């Protein structure tokens, strides 16, 4: 399948952070978070970057997220932990080249994603406690530059910040 068939078949829509998504599951069970808000125990989405939307912009979630690669090209994740340490990881099909089929990003980390080549990269995400937009922050360039002054030596922040 090509990206247009997948977008239609999976009923994906544009995502705030870039790419396309659709929520596929939200637990009826709830938990109370550390800040006292109530969230679903678990939620899950399809998430796809493609050639017309190849960047998932830097954002931070409060919940832990497990990413599961499904098909297409590899996706590169850029992570910044709360102390400012930078790392990158690839989800994709080529285990011999260092790709992984899954990866966990702890809550509180900044992350951005890139489809470096190919028509699309499709994955799923499981979020616990469940995703809520109130728990997500899209990065502002000025904030990342201020909070992590050496980060621009490792990655083109302007390219990966929506605002």
From TrEMBL:
Protein origin, superkingdom: Bacteria
Domain DUF985: 4-139
Protein's UniProt name: Cupin
Matching Pfam families: Cupin_5
InterPro entries: Cupin_DUF985 (IPR009327), RmlC-like_jellyroll (IPR014710), RmlC_Cupin_sf (IPR011051), YML079W-like (IPR039935)
